[in-house]
Description:
Elements: H1 3-34, H2 41-78, H3 86-113, H4 121-144, H5 150-176
Amino acid sequence: MDYLYLKALHIIFVITWFAGLFYIVRLFIYHTEALEKEEPDRTILSDQLALMSKKLWYIITWPSAIITVILGISLLVVQPSWLKMPFMHVKLGFVALLILYHLGCHGIFRQLQKRKAKYTSTQLRVFNEAATLILFAVVFLIVLKNAISWIYGTIGLISFAIVLMIAIKLYKRFRKN
């Protein structure tokens, strides 16, 4: 298959993978909050959120992750020179973090399917931002390649994370009022 077709498909499945990851954690948050409600709301909401999560996880998110990885490996086979570029090593490090994040989501998914909430909705909101940080890092690495200053990039990511944490705290206060 032509390199550009592989690249286009890779980008499409990266997008669907991230969409699934962003939405699944949202469902985790709602599910965790539903488990705190009184009956019959707890059961009704928990059953519905478990079903929605299961469909999203197994029909969209897992297949997108697998196809993304296969296409990414295919791109590296077609263009092995990318592996000589330092930015690609860093990008692959972020991809490894994303896979670990995905597996962490799978653990939370399995717990919530059993109606067990190990994390609070606030902890899950913070957890959700990890995917955002990985997305930003990967996009900037791919677009800027070697032009990125690692010092400024690292400072920028940390600053972005701090802004996200502040926004989460403000949102939590807003919800209480």
